[in-house]
Design goal:
Length: 234
């Protein structure tokens, strides 16, 4: 295998390895997102439950006040009916209690409307948690084997790639790895008589040399140029 063929093979392996690595990372991220989705849903449920419980606490407080006011109102009525104590004081107590009872009952009605909305929000939050749990359970069941498969393929291809690169002359190998460390693909292919990476037209002589099997670089991006693969020719 000559250097052109080695670079060709390295490029194919490198891109395939990158694809599998990205697949593995995408699947890992999907699992993380499913776990975070459940945490977020549980957090929303906790907040909704807190708001609902606040309305229940307030409801109990208003109810205690109503019970106390109604007891005082009943006491005032008894005083008026029996003539015990001061009729004027009993009447004032009755009227004051009725006024305060009206206010408390209005507060209770308003609170119950707020409580209904809080209860609905809580039920919705609970359903979101259940949905997030189903998503996470599915992810935990289905994703790990796919992650392992993608990671194993990436590892296998990386080992094969290292073997091919190891057969390159030191200067070519160093340049190849240097470009990859910078996040660049060292190899570009000819597409429509142009570099597939930078779109610069390849001179006719370059095309001739490539067909002769010589190693050529793009005049624009300086990547090694290769002829299209069989699948790219179709």
């Amino acid at each position: 295998m000559d250097d052109v063929a080695r670079l060709d093979r390295a490029d194919v392996l490198d891109r395939e390895q990158n694809r599998w690595s990205q697949d593995a990372e995408r699947l890992r991220q999907a699992l993380v997102e499913a776990e975070q989705g459940l945490k977020n849903a549980e957090s929303v449920r906790g907040e909704a439950n807190g708001r609902f419980e606040e309305t229940r606490t307030e409801e109990r407080g208003i109810q205690r006040r109503l019970d106390d006011l109604r007891a005082k109102h009943a006491s005032a009525l008894r005083m008026l009916e029996t003539g015990a104590g001061s009729p004027e004081a009993a009447e004032r107590q009755r009227q004051n209690c009725e006024h305060l009872i009206d206010e408390a009952e209005t507060q209770m009605l308003e609170l119950l409307e707020t409580q209904d909305a809080a209860r609905a929000a809580l039920e919705l939050a609970k359903s979101k948690v259940e949905q997030a749990e189903r998503v996470l359970n599915t992810a935990r069941k289905e994703l790990p084997p796919r992650i392992d498969e993608a990671a194993a393929a990436a590892t296998r291809l990386q080992a094969e790639l290292e073997g091919v690169l190891g057969d390159l002359p030191p200067d070519l190998r160093s340049r190849y790895k240097g470009l990859r460390e910078k996040g660049r693909w060292p190899v570009a292919r000819i597409k429509d008589a142009s570099c597939s990476a930078c779109s610069m037209t390849a001179p006719p002589q370059t095309m001739v040399e490539l067909k002769r099997g010589r190693l050529m670089s793009c005049h624009g991006c300086h990547r090694w140029l290769l002829l299209p693969t069989d699948s790219e020719k179709v």
